[in-house]
Write a structure and sequence with these properties.
The protein is an alpha+beta fold. It has helices at about 1-15, 50-60; strands at about 65-70, 95-100, 105-110. It is built from two helices and three strands.
């Protein structure tokens, strides 16, 4: 009796540990235009450059491609992330979003191109 009850409890406990599939990142309007726009992703500056954050930034900026590079900034700026100018490149244009990361893998700058 106890063995059966224990087996049922163990199966129920282990089945609760199964992970649900992660939802795909979809654009709000349903279409990625391929024309990069930084104004919709400025809020990502200062966040950790995880795969999910980078993909969300790509989709929200309407970019088809993304490049993540290690920034070479040595000075601190007025922003929370320490970047003097969080958008040093083009604000829009092209099909690629470029993300610069800091030494702790936080996003320090976003720009198109």
């Amino acid at each position: 009796m106890y063995r059966t009850l224990f087996a049922v409890a163990a199966v129920a406990t282990l089945s609760a540990c199964s992970s649900a599939p992660m939802a795909q990142v979809q654009p709000i309007d349903g279409v990625i235009s391929g024309q990069c726009h930084v104004d919709k992703v400025r809020g990502a500056v200062g966040l950790a450059a995880s795969a999910a954050t980078v993909e969300r930034a790509r989709v929200d900026s309407d970019s088809l491609q993304i490049t993540v590079i290690r920034g070479q900034r040595t000075g601190s700026g007025p922003t929370a992330s320490g970047a003097a100018d969080p958008t040093p490149g083009a604000q829009s244009g092209g099909d690629r979003l470029t993300i610069e990361t800091g030494r702790t893998n936080n996003i320090t700058a976003l720009y198109c191109g």
